[in-house]
Amino acid sequence: MERYGKLPFIGAAVFIVLVLILKSSVTIESGHGGVLFKTFGGGVNTEKTYGEGFHILAPWNDIIVYEVRQQEIKEKMSVLSSNGLEIDVDLSAWFQPQYKSLGNLHQQKGKNYIENVVLPSLRSSTRSVIGRYTPDEIYSSKRDAIQAEIYEETKKVLDKQFVQINEILVRDITLPTTIKTAIENKLKQEQESLEYEYRLEKAKKEAQRQKIDAEGKAVANKILSESLTDKILKEKGIEATLELAKSPNSKVVVVGGGDNGLPIILNQ
Question: What pTM was computed for the model?
Answer without folding.
Answer: 0.62
